[in-house]
């Protein structure tokens, strides 16, 4: 089991503890305030489809800003350097724009409560059940990562035992989701976004001051790791060496297409935030609004990873007491004064709870709406499914506690997370793209493509773990696994689809891409037609800005 070094222990005073207590009180207050709006399963699972775009947009990015982002991307910054910006600029922004401009009209207008339910309408119950099970398993595994990361951080920073840390975090997430449903989770995610940013900005600024500013980072990292460590594309030609162990093709196709589009367009923890928006216009703008803060998150996550590498040059190396996951806690222990320290600890707890809450809320929706209601207890009163949703939330937290320790064998939790994405999200994306853009796609093709597309990367990764496949980087393995998942799904689905009978075209209305459906603006509300709210402007603006953000790392 990987734990953080005891040398990271913090000296918290009464002011730090007070900040932490106030945060927990506010979180529970939001939950009980949200409870008044929960009267049905639609309220509990999708906030009654009533939230404005700015709220769902911030919740969208905050749901992703969990343990994997804070600890994992800082760990990536220390381990891989500027190559980490690929996860933001090519590994997030294009897919978020594609979700908002192309896919959301089909998700939202079909009135589905979850991503797997779309496959039920497009294909059959077999594809639906398989995708629901995959989503449920992936959700609790990812929720477990957030719990585990929180536990090891609190043990190192505050001296709390790991079981106590897990229980405290789990209980708070359980309370505010069970009481207030998705509305509570989303409004808390908005709060958590600002708390996380407020915690990370001082950490980054003080870190820069310690190492001599941006020029100090460049000079010191170049001296120790080489200039290539600060170049996103340097050394990515075929046959060239780089810390990531990948080339431009695996980065572009494996990360930029397979993993990125697989995660951002089908991961229900994200899509659920868009589905809770008040109308189609707000739903489309949700991921587009989120794209803008997303591309600047590296300034307060990846940059601290580089600063930690300068301050502790042997971080992550054999024999070091600090692994890569220690990057952020290391800076907190060495840089922050009391008061700011309490805010930083609160920000870490907020990030872990945001990540866990996003996955637990998606788990309870998928289990209730896609497994329990259609296959175990159909045709029950709505109140029955509302009760099941609350009960399964508690069960999901308990399972998340159990899966937390699966992450214990990974010194960089982002490696583990990307492994999960290549297993579960990539084949789902391949199946969804065929379902959405090809009328000839059939239910049998969807089932077998999804099943074998999931098993293929698991088999490849297993061969890597036992030494049959030899590769230099775990992230390089994940990118190859993602490409294998994508190709396998397509190679299986296409011939089966051509050999089986598709649904009649009349049954595919609203479920297969047409330009009319894709450009449907839905029911507009006052102000939705303002020029600065136009999805196309937001989407292409985000793409252009992402390209410009690559420039400093490409010179």
Automatic annotation (TrEMBL):
PROSITE patterns linked: NA_SOLUT_SYMP_3
Chain segments annotated as coiled-coil in the UniProt record: none
GO molecular function, one term: D-glucose:sodium symporter activity
GO cellular component: a single term: plasma membrane
Subcellular location: Membrane
Membrane topology label: Multi-pass membrane protein
Keywords associated with the record: Membrane, Transmembrane, Transmembrane helix
CDD domains linked to this entry: SLC5sbd_u2 (cd11478)
Keyword Transmembrane helix: yes
Protein name as catalogued: Solute:Na+ symporter, SSS family
Organism: Actinopolyspora alba
């Amino acid at each position: 089991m990987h734990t953080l070094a005891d040398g990271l222990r913090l000296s918290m005073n009464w002011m730090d503890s007070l900040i932490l207590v106030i945060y927990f009180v506010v979180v529970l207050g939001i939950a009980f305030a949200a409870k008044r709006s929960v009267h049905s399963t639609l309220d509990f699972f999708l906030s009654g489809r009533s939230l404005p775009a700015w709220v769902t947009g911030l919740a969208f990015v905050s749901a992703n800003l969990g343990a994997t982002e804070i600890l994992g991307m800082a760990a990536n910054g220390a381990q891989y350097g500027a190559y980490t910006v690929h996860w933001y600029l090519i590994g997030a922004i294009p897919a978020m724009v594609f979700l908002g401009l192309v896919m959301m009209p089909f998700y939202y207008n079909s009135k589905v409560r979850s991503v797997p339910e779309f496959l039920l309408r497009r294909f059959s119950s077999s594809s639906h059940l398989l995708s629901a099970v995959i989503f449920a398993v992936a959700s609790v595994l990812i929720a477990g990562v957030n719990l585990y990361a929180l536990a090891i951080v609190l043990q190192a920073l505050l001296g709390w035992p790991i079981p106590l840390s897990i229980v405290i975090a789990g209980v708070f997430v359980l309370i505010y989701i069970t009481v207030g449903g998705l509305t509570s989770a989303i409004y808390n995610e908005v709060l958590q976004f600002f708390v996380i940013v407020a915690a990370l900005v001082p950490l980054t600024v003080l870190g820069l001051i310690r190492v001599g500013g941006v020029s100090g980072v460049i000079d010191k990292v170049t001296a120790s790791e080489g200039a290539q460590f600060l170049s996103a594309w340097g050394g990515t030609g075929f046959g060239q060496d780089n810390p990531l162990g990948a080339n431009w093709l695996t980065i572009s196709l494996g990360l930029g297409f397979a993993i990125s589009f697989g995660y951002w367009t089908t991961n229900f923890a994200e899509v659920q935030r868009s589905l809770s928006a008040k109308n189609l216009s707000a739903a489309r703008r949700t991921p587009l609004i989120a794209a803008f803060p997303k591309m600047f998150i590296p300034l307060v996550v990846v940059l601290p990873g580089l600063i930690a590498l300068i301050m502790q040059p042997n971080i992550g190396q054999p024999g070091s007491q600090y692994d890569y996951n220690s990057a952020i806690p290391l800076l907190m222990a060495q840089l922050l004064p009391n008061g700011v320290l309490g805010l930083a600890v609160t920000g870490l707890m907020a990030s872990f709870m945001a990540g866990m809450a996003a996955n637990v809320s998606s788990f309870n929706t998928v289990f209730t709406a896609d497994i329990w209601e259609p296959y175990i207890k159909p045709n029950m009163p709505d109140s029955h499914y509302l009760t099941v949703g609350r009960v399964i939330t508690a069960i999901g937290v308990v399972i998340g506690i159990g899966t937390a320790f699966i992450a214990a064998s990974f010194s960089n939790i982002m490696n583990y997370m990307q492994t999960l994405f290549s297993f579960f999200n990539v084949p789902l994306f391949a199946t969804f793209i065929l379902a959405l853009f090809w009328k000839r796609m059939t239910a049998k093709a969807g089932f077998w493509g999804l099943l074998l597309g999931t098993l293929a990367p698991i088999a490849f990764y297993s061969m890597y773990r036992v030494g049959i496949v030899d590769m230099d980087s775990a992230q390089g393995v994940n990118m190859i696994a993602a490409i294998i998942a994508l190709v396998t799904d397509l190679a299986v689905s296409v011939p089966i689809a051509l050999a089986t009978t598709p649904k009649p075209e009349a049954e595919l209305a609203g479920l297969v891409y047409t330009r009319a459906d894709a450009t449907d603006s839905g029911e507009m509300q006052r102000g939705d037609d303002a020029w600065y709210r136009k999805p196309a402007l937001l989407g292409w603006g985000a793409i252009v800005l992402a390209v410009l953000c690559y420039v400093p790392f490409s010179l």
